[in-house]
Specification:
The chain is an alpha/beta fold and 289 residues long. It has 2 domains: 75 residues, Four Helix Bundle (Hemerythrin (Met), subunit A) (Up-down Bundle); 207 residues, P-loop containing nucleotide triphosphate hydrolases (Rossmann fold, 3-Layer(aba) Sandwich). The protein has 12 helices and 8 strands. Helix 8 runs parallel beside helix 9.
Amino acid sequence: LKKRIVKKITETAISKKDFNELFQPLELTLLQSNVAVKTIEVVKESLSKELVGKSVKRGSLEQAVTSALKKSISNVLVEGDVKDLISEIKASKEPVSIMFVGANGSGKTTTIAKIAKFLKSQKISVVLAACDTFRAASIEQLETHGRALGVKVVKHSYGSDAAAVAYDALEHAKANNIKVVLIDTAGRSHSNVNLMRELEKVKRVVNPDYTIFVGDALTGNDVVLQAKDFNDVTPFDYVILTKTDVDEKGGAILSVSHETGAPVLFLGTGQTYADLEPFNKKGLVKQLL
């Protein structure tokens, strides 16, 4: 990105017209990286404030542009603090409930298993709530993860009330002094009214301490639309994006963070339980540049 801008700037002060011409190739690159249009507009405005009217010597031009780009993109990103979350969980006297939401195929259930593994590594006890009573084999999938991790799964039968499952899991945690309840929910789209209402009911009954949206980074701008839809129905506190190990573009992460205002907590980077990394803002900025 920076090279396209640097090549065209002279030693004279950068005018608004100059900047708009310079930003065109940058805008194309951001679009190709799956950054949403609204997010690009915010980056453009921020970058304009950093560059327009400034006179930079040729020798320090690349450094100035790089610095301005880093600052503009960093301003858009919201980074979740994993250490703070762990501290809050450990300090809580009651079980902490975390509800996970997302579209079909986002990797939500596998992500929950990874979170369970991570929490156990922090000496935090966990129980899983199999609240996806809609999708075939969803309960068995969660149970398979539970057995592999040595974590109990609270379940009912298929077609049963998801909110009741979540409630029972929370009661189990209270009775057995378990610190965290991880609530799996049915993957859904905003067009499935019944499943979206079910999601609202689960949240109303359990009143989870945190809600986390799980999205597939490879779906580009689709994941941005999904995040906005879910945030409208059940506002979430954090974002986890999956399959980022094969997403070379990185724009979806930037866009979801900006469009929802929710901090990105983790990135899924593979298929094993260990393939979960706390989100690092600097790493993404470097990737985009």
